[in-house]
Amino acid sequence: MIISIASGKGGTGKTTIAVNLALSLNGKVQLLDCDVEEPDDHIFLKPEFSKSEKIYLPKPFVDTAKCNYCGRCSEVCQYNAIAVIKNKVLIFYELCHSCGACKIACPQEAIFEKEVEKGIVEEGTARNILFAQGKLRESESSPVPLVKAVKKKIKKEHNVIIDCSPGTSCPVVEAVKDTDFCLLVTEPTPFGLNDLKLAVEMCRKIKVPLGVIINREDIGDKKVEAYCKEEKIPILMTIPFSKEIAYAYSEGIPIVEKFPEYKEKFQELFERIKKTK
């Protein structure tokens, strides 16, 4: 079973749920950290890495000796990553999706591609867990290709947990799609509710079954619960606010290690997910 852990906003406890769920499952377990801009599952798992793979993507460059500045490359680019101004071609690499359309469309064959490092994918083990994470290079944008690279490491014979980045943008959609179930972690605040609605809409559009976990459920209001009831979304787990849990988190200690009774709760969560699906 492949379970994605997502949230409409950051700081809701998504990583906490992903790590502790993975630590609580028996048998073959794999955890993938697809929050490639800020991966931090390793802080809690402390895995031993055995493999590191550089991920490359083609990027377009212009041979000015061949280019006649016709502007065809700019016309075909769907991402507005190329602009032709008089006798100059400007390429905005932060917008480029490496689709290759500009190279194909160029009548002068003036555009060529170079492989540029996008980031790395690291693999290792922690306890009984297979672990993989992606790290986007600081100078790079568009993390989607790196998310795809991490997801290629999925072992289908394992129970797979995918920790997604916060929000509902392209890298989150890429991480959540094709998973068996999405756990949306939220908090009972106006911001939590607003962003939960966006995440629910995302899951429904890509047709991934979903359920909700309310973290720090005793510090806000009941509007998240009311919304879930109205939308017939199952609330699969609630976690109360706890200074002890917060202190453990700040020290990189998983909940189930500090409070062993939570291991059974996460196992029950997994059983609820299987029944809900």
UniProtKB/TrEMBL annotation:
PROSITE patterns: 4FE4S_FER_1 (PS00198), 4FE4S_FER_2 (PS51379). Residues 58-87, 88-116 form the 4Fe-4S ferredoxin-type domain. Keywords: Iron, Iron-sulfur, Metal-binding. The keyword Metal-binding applies. One of its GO terms (molecular function) is iron-sulfur cluster binding. SUPFAM superfamilies: 4Fe-4S ferredoxins, P-loop containing nucleoside triphosphate hydrolases. Pfam families: CbiA, Fer4. InterPro entries: 4Fe4S_Fe-S-bd (IPR017896), 4Fe4S_Fe_S_CS (IPR017900), CobQ/CobB/MinD/ParA_Nub-bd_dom (IPR002586), P-loop_NTPase (IPR027417). PANTHER family: 4FE-4S CLUSTER CONTAINING PARA FAMILY ATPASE PROTEIN (PTHR43063). This is (4Fe-4S)-binding protein.
